[in-house]
Specification:
Number of helices: 10
Largest sheet: 5 strands, parallel
Number of strands: 7
Shape: globular
Radius of gyration: 17 Å
Low-confidence stretches: none
Structural class: alpha/beta
Strand order of the largest sheet: 1-2-3-4-7
Order of helices and strands: HHEHEHHEHEHEEHEHH
Helix content: 25-40%
Mean pLDDT: 94
């Protein structure tokens, strides 16, 4: 479990070669990254629109804030990559991972030209409390699996601020909350990643 578009990819091209192999075998692949490299011309030459599913993550809509927490290309570059892939017709999602309400400018977020967003709420432990200084951790009162989580009512309230996308799906760790999103929010009840397949590819998978 690691970002397949780290800086080392520029030298070793392991992800590039893997995509080529998956294309050859006609195997679907989900790319989750904090890099804009996936939308570079070199990778667009090989990404198969019938097989590639791409999620580009952001934590903050502000470049300066994001650089405090992430050693990755700027948020603004990632947004450009998302919009480029969407315009070209790829199955692409903006991934808010983790979704931290205090770090998001919702005017910026809701203006991103992409029809899908995936939300993964912050899970809090001692390390996270030391790392994110702007966050009000007093709201994280629900404990499960050695993490603190927001109560469901606060999560649902925060989601109301996300309005710029046709499809919103939630990836969830809390068991009861997962059932709520699955039954009431997620457009694909069997897949919280909400991957899109062509009719032809659905028949192949089946």
């Amino acid at each position: 479990m690691t970002d397949c578009f780290q800086a080392f990819e520029n030298a070793y091209r392991v992800t590039y070669k893997t995509i080529q192999l998956l294309n050859e075998k006609r195997i679907h692949y989900l790319i989750i990254t904090k890099s804009d490299m996936v939308a570079s011309d070199k990778y667009l030459e090989i990404l198969d629109k019938e097989l590639a599913h791409i999620q580009i993550s952001i934590t903050s809509t502000d470049d300066k804030t994001a650089f405090q927490y992430e050693k990755a290309p700027s948020t603004s570059r990632r947004i450009v990559a998302i919009e480029k892939l969407y315009k070209l017709g790829y199955d692409v999602s903006l991934r808010l991972s983790p979704f931290i309400f205090e770090l998001i400018d919702f005017d910026v977020l809701n203006s991103i030209n992409c029809n899908k967003v995936l939300v993964e709420f912050l899970r809090v432990n001692t390390f996270i409390k030391r790392w994110f200084k702007e966050v009000d951790f007093s709201k994280y009162t629900l404990k499960q699996s050695n993490y603190l989580h927001l109560p469901l009512e606060i999560k649902t309230e925060q989601l109301q601020a996300i309005t710029g996308f046709k499809e919103l799906t939630v990836c969830e760790d809390v068991t009861e909350h997962y059932e709520y999103w699955r039954n009431n929010v997620n457009p694909n009840k069997d897949d919280c990643c909400n991957l899109h397949y062509t009719k032809q590819e659905i028949r192949k998978v089946a």
